[in-house]
Amino acid sequence: MIQAQSADGTIHQFPDGTADSVIDNAMKAYSAQAGAQAPKSGSTVSSLMTGIANGGTFNLMAPVAAALGATTGEGPSKAPDWRQRYNEDLAAYRAQDQATHQAHPVADISGQIIGGVLNPAIKALPIPKTLPGAIAQGAGIGAGYGAGSSITSQDSLPDAAKNVGIGAAIGGAVPAVIPAVGWAAKKAGQGISQALGLTTGVGAKPIQEAFQAGVSGGDQAQALTSNMRGNTPWSDVVDEAKAALGKMRADRNATYRSGMVDISSDPTVLSFDPIDEAMSKVAKVKTYAGRSGTATAQDLSKSTAGVRQQIQETLDNWRSLDPAEFHTPEGFDALKQQIGDIRDNLPFNTPQRVVADNAYNAVRKTIAEQAPAYNKVMSDYSQASDAIDGIQKELSLGPKGNPGTAMRKLQSVMRDNVNTSYGNRASYADALTAAGAKTLMPALAGQALSTVVPRGLGRVLGGAEIGATMMAPGLALKTGGLLAASSPRLVGEAAYGLGRGVGALGSLPRINNLIPLNAGNAVAAPSIAALVPAMLPRLPH
């Protein structure tokens, strides 16, 4: 290759054997065009657009432009014949591409990646159904970019064959190396989400949820975007949480009824002795038997005495019923429900409640000790009830709960620094998700990411960036990226878009039902094409 350096320091390459007059005219055309260009303000955008054009045309944008310029006479060259105009225009365009890449490599490569994804010829290809098919298709696409790069460079046949081979190797290798890339991206993404969580003030979790919603697509993506863009009432998350809580109750009751099928067939007649022993102990609650403790006990609380009498009457009535019908494990469970109805209408942390709790637990313990199968059923029921009660109370999801309070509590699960007293909220939200609230978390993430301006500490950082930019306008270009990284909405949209891209990698089916083709170990043809154009033109010729 022949190399020539222009006044701005740019190195231009020409094929061996290029006439001196062609090189001189190309250098003059480049110098004239470079002198006529506006300052660097628009050069980043120009590099991006040039990269998109190259990536979307198999690196053939320069030859196409040169052919058009030579035909219309509107190109840089004013040579008398078409062939000379084409060669000079092509050399000028290639030199310009190299200059813009050297000045703005990130924009140029980003544009090529975008162009590769948008390349209509590649998008028209069917998605390969096997990993070998993905490798073969990637190799073919890479070879196409290699051929286009050689045409642009006016390479000799041996150099062109080399370019085609390099392009095929790159395109075919991408599906094989994607597992390592996916692992590295996952690790890097964790750190990035933490950093963006700080700059935006929303924490890392909403950003991670936005990315995951993009990967998953469907209802989760819709929930995230509609809440993030303000197209859905925020109160919908409360309705979804309440619906999931209702399903938890229904599942608990269904499990209980299923377990009680075996209990109902147990004819064992249970003894009242453990229950009577417990009632003798609660007889001392809110009573006074004199200094010696042996005198006739006096009630100190009429309300407590009334509850104790009501429960005792309930027990006596049940004791009088037919043992074969009512003293079985199933019958004692019904007795427990009667006492439970009395208990549930009493306020917590009162003597009356203590009396009712002791009687209720005594009946339950009696059944568990004399009918072990019942203990498992009631243990599961109790655990489910505790979880439901905890969620309802902590998240204000009860019938009398304030929807606004419930919404604020639900939104708090997105924070990284949830107070210790509210530490269960995240686990409660996970339980609601498992119960059917599949779009709850992405919806909450969308709400957290809905504002354009940063929150909390991020608001302070963003304000400092804006203030510094106003005082020193020259900082605008340097702080623009940081300001964007401080906007929850912009970061949320970017994380969601990145997730959608990664989700596309998971569209490949399995190879013979053995090797899963997903974001972890394979890549679709458009994604392969996105990498090849960015790599190939920068390799030495």
Protein architecture, described:
The protein has 24 helices and 4 strands. Among the domains are: 173 residues, no CATH class; 151 residues, no CATH class. The strands form 2 sheets. The chain has a two-stranded antiparallel ribbon with strand order 1-2. The longest helix has 44 residues. A hairpin with a 5-residue loop joins strand 1 and strand 2. By secondary structure, it is mostly helical. It is rod-shaped and about 130 Å long.
Keywords:
24 helices; two-stranded antiparallel ribbon; about 70% helix; about 550 residues; mainly alpha
How is the topology of this model organized?
Layout: E1 2-5, E2 11-14, H1 20-36, H2 43-55, H3 61-72, H4 82-103, H5 105-118, H6 120-123, H7 131-153, H8 157-200, H9 204-216, H10 218-228, H11 236-264, H12 273-282, E3 287-288, E4 298-299, H13 302-319, H14 323-326, H15 329-344, H16 351-370, H17 372-394, H18 403-411, H19 425-434, H20 440-448, H21 456-471, H22 476-485, H23 488-505, H24 525-535
Helix pairs in contact: 1-4, 2-4, 2-5, 3-4, 4-5, 5-24, 7-8, 7-24, 8-9, 8-21, 8-24, 9-10, 9-20, 9-23, 10-20, 11-17, 11-19, 12-16, 13-15, 13-16, 15-16, 16-17, 21-22
